[in-house]
Structure formats: structure tokens, C-alpha cells
Specification:
Elements (H helix, E strand, L loop, with lengths): L1 H20 L6 H67 L14 H22 L4
Length: about 130
């Protein structure tokens, strides 16, 4: 389309130049033909411009759709990461090999830690749903 426009643009300029500079050298019949040819080249240029705008609009729409999809994926990944950050912190603290961690000697420490992690994840999911983020 661009190469076609590059071909038509000089043709229009040449026809305009002939019409302006050679009025006294050109017969009336040829002058009418050149005027008609000039009108057709202008019409072709307008059509090409319309096609260009249509293609640009379609490309913008496609890029907008692609950007929207990428934003949705990024939102899901952010929510998953946000839920797992506090869980990873808790697992990291209890994964340390310290000699004196009093809660490790308790019989119910492991189930309590799992329950705490589940509660944190559930509360975060509920919060995100209330905010209509998911």
C-alpha cells in the first residue's frame, strides 16, 4: 500500500504541473482528459488514506486487546505472589534450624502453623474478592 502511494503521489504532482504550466500548449480535449486523470489520482489518494487509517485503527485495536490480556495475566500473577509471600515468610521462619524455638516442642505447633497459613491465604482471597480484584 505504501509503495502504491509512493507511485501515485508523483503522478498527481506531474499531472498538476502539466495542467498549470502547459495550458496554452495542450488542446482542450487533452486538458479535459488531464483534469479527469487528476481527479482520479486524487480519489485514489483519498482511498489509500482511508485504507491507511482503517489499518492503523485495526492495529491499535489489536495492540489494545493484547495489552489488556497481558494486564489480566499480570494481575493473576500478582495476586498469586501476594498470597504466597506471607506463607513463604512463615515457612522460612519455621524452616530455620535454631536450637531454641519454644513452639517447636508443642504437640499442636505443626497443625497450628498450617492452620495459620491457610487462614492467612483465605483472608487474603476474601479481601481480594471484596475489592473485586478477582
Amino acid at each position: 500500500m505504501l509503495s502504491f502511494r509512493r507511485c501515485v503521489w508523483p503522478l498527481r504532482e506531474a499531472i498538476t504541473g502539466i495542467q498549470r504550466g502547459g495550458e496554452h500548449l495542450i488542446s482542450e480535449e487533452l486538458f479535459a482528459f488531464l483534469r479527469d486523470l487528476h481527479d482520479h489520482t486524487v480519489q485514489v489518494m483519498d482511498t489509500l488514506e482511508t485504507f491507511h487509517m482503517t489499518i492503523s485503527g485495526a492495529m491499535d485495536l489489536y495492540m489494545s486487546s493484547l495489552s489488556n490480556r497481558m494486564n489480566q495475566v499480570a494481575q493473576v500473577l500478582t495476586i498469586v505472589a501476594t498470597i504466597f509471600i506471607p506463607l513463604t515468610f512463615i515457612a522460612g521462619v519455621y524452616g530455620m534450624n535454631f536450637k531454641y524455638m519454644p513452639e517447636l516442642d508443642l504437640r499442636w505447633a505443626y497443625p497450628a502453623c498450617l492452620l495459620l497459613m491457610l487462614l492467612i491465604a483465605a483472608l487474603m482471597v476474601l479481601y481480594f474478592k471484596r475489592k473485586k480484584w478477582i
